[in-house]
Amino acid sequence: MLDAAWHDFVAKGRDLVVTSGMVSTDQQKHALSRIPDSVEFSLDVRSQDRNMLEAMHALVLQHVTRIENERAVRSISARRCGPVRRSAASRRSPG
Predict the structure, then answer these.
(1) For each of the chain's 95 residues, which pLDDT tens digit applies?
(2) CA-CA distance, 47 to 86, in Å (whole number)?
């Protein structure tokens, strides 16, 4: 669903890059035939447009809430983990 949103934003000419970072499970608990107790992941959202970043952050939280409700799971989302890490975006050199 985030991929579809990214595609729609980019098709409208918005500046947005979304990639997944790390994905991991607890090495002490995971196994080939076992559903993990927890999964950790990171999501990297970049844009020169601060409003685009805020819109995408809101969309991610909306999907987190939906998944929690549909799947009866609990997430440790940005709402509960503290502030989102932000840094100023830099422009790529032409060429």
Answers:
(1) 888 999 999 999 999 988 887 888 888 887 888 888 888 878 888 898 989 999 998 998 888 888 888 988 887 655 555 556 766 666 666 76
(2) 11
Residue identified by tokens 């952050």 is 57
Could you say which DSSP state residue 33 is in? T
Handedness of CA 26, 59, 9, 86 (dihedral sign): negative
Q: What is the pTM of this model?
A: 0.73
How far apart CA 32 and CA 20 sit, in angstroms, is 22
Q: Give the CA-trace dihedral at 73, 77, 55, 42, to 10 degrees.
A: -100
